[in-house]
Amino acid sequence: EIGGGATSTPWERDVIIVTGKGKRSERHLRPVLRPEVQRMLVEEFYPPMGTVSVPGNMGALRVPAEDVGAWMDHQREQKGVRLMAVAEMLKKISSGSRLRSVLTRRSKGVAAAIANAATSARSEGGLKGDGLDKPQ
């Protein structure tokens, strides 16, 4: 399910990617973009997406609908996993335990810094007592 209860539908059409056939490539009709797009779809997408040449058009690649659908399904699943991780973090924050521990750590650090400053001032003769005395 996605969104407000709608179910996913399979991707119904192949995707055509127009890369050109390399007319303006450094080496005429030796495409640069096409093999890079093919490599990217196989190596950088999960699940990998295969391509086939479009008959009669060497400047276009066809990505089968099944591969696009499988990739989209995986993206939906991953989105759900990420949302659950965010929900768990929000749950911890809202319980107060994490916030309480951060504030406790910081307040101890501030108290230590004030004590160090007071000790330092006392040793220089500037403060008497706890450092909160009124000037004389």
Structure summarized in a few sentences:
By secondary structure, the protein is mainly alpha-helical. The chain contains three helices and three strands, in the order E-H-E-E-H-H. The chain has helices at residues 33-43, 65-95, 97-123; strands at residues 15-18, 52-54, 57-63.
Protein topology:
Layout: E1 15-18, H1 33-43, E2 52-54, E3 57-63, H2 65-95, H3 97-123
Antiparallel strand pairs: 1-3, 2-3
Which percent bin holds the helix content? 40-55%
Report the radius of gyration as a whole number of Å.
Answer: 32 Å
- Can you list the strand order of the major beta sheet? 1-3-2
The residue ranges in which pLDDT falls below 50 over 5 or more consecutive positions are: 1-6
* Sheet having the most strands: 3 strands, antiparallel
Alpha carbon gap, first and last residue? 74 Å
Number of strands: 3
Proportion of strand residues: 5-15%
* Elements, N to C (H/E): EHEEHH
Shape: elongated
Give the count of helical stretches: 3
Mean pLDDT: 80
> Which structural class matches the secondary elements?
mainly alpha
Task: Describe, in plain words, how this protein is organized in 3D.
This protein has 136 residues and is mainly α. The protein is 51% helix and 10% strand. It has 3 helices and 3 strands; from the N terminus they run E-H-E-E-H-H. It has helices spanning 33-43, 65-95, 97-123, and strands at residues 15-18, 52-54, 57-63. The longest helix has 31 residues, at 65-95. The radius of gyration is 32 Å and the shape is elongated. The N and C termini lie far apart (74 Å).
